Amino acid sequence: MRFHVITIFPDIFDSYMNESIIGRAKEKKLIDIKFYNPRDFIRAPKNNYRPVDDRPYGGGPGMVMRVEPLIKAIEKSLSKIKDKKRVKIINFSPSGKKFTTEYAKNSVKKYTDIIFICGRYEGIDARIDKIFKTENISIGDYVLTGGELPAMVLIDSISRQIKGVLGKFESLEEERISSSEVYTRPEVLKYKNKNYKVPKVLLSGNHKDIEEWKKTNK
Ligand code: SAH
Predict the structure, then answer these.
(1) Among residues 6, 7, 126, 157, which one has the fewest Cβ atoms lying within 10 Å of its Cβ?
(2) Which CATH superfamily is domain 2-169 in?
(3) What is the pTM of this model?
(4) If you average pLDDT over every residue of the chain, what do you get?
(5) Which residues approach ligand 1 with their CB closer than 6 A?
C-alpha cells in the first residue's frame, strides 16, 4: 500500500511514521509514504512569499487553502500511480463519514494507493472535492487544527490490516478473541501497601476458561 500525503507540514509525520510497527512496515516495504507540499507548487514571487491560503469568499474568520497549489500537488501524486482504478482520494473534515476498522479493512482490499489531503485553517477550497471526487472522512466528533493527525490515524489503522505488518497476523482482533484488559509480569504488584493481582484464570493454563474470560472482559 502506498500512501500519498498532501500537506504543508510534512515534518509533523517524521517521528510517528518512522518508529515501531509503522517504521518497520516501511523498512520491509509493506507500505510506502510519500509527501507532496502544496507550497512547492507555487511560483515564488520576488519576496519569496508563497501563500497557500487566502480569505474566504462570503467573509468569516480564518483562511482557506487555495485550490491551484492543491491541484498541482494532487496531480503530482496521481502521476506516480500506475493503476488509477485502485486509488482513493480522501479529504478530511470533522463532518465527514466516520472512519472505522471496517473502512480500514476494505481499503486494504480495494486500493493500492491512497491520497490524503490534509486541510489546515478553515479547510480547503471545496472545488477540490468536485474535481477529484474525494471522499470526506472524519476521525471523530471534535475539531482539530489540521488533517495531519487524521492522516496518521488512517495510515496507522490501515497499515495494521496489511499482512506482515503486525508481528503475528493473529494479533489482529478479528483473528482471535481479544480483550482490552491485559496483564504482564509481575503476577502480584505491591503498590502503596495494596496488592494488585493478575486474574487467576489467566494463570490457570486452561485455554477454554481463558477464552471465556476474554469474551466477558472485552
Ligand atoms: N471549519 C471547518 C473545520 C476546519 S479544521 C469545519 O467546520 O469543517 C481544519 C482541518 O482539520 C480540516 O480541513 C480537516 O482537514 C482537519 N480536521 C479537523 N477536525 C477533524 C476531524 N475530526 N476529522 C478529520 N479531519 C479533521
Answers:
(1) 126
(2) SPOUT methyltransferase, trefoil knot domain (3.40.1280.10)
(3) 0.94
(4) 95
(5) 92-95, 118-120, 122-123, 138-140, 142-144, 146-147, 150
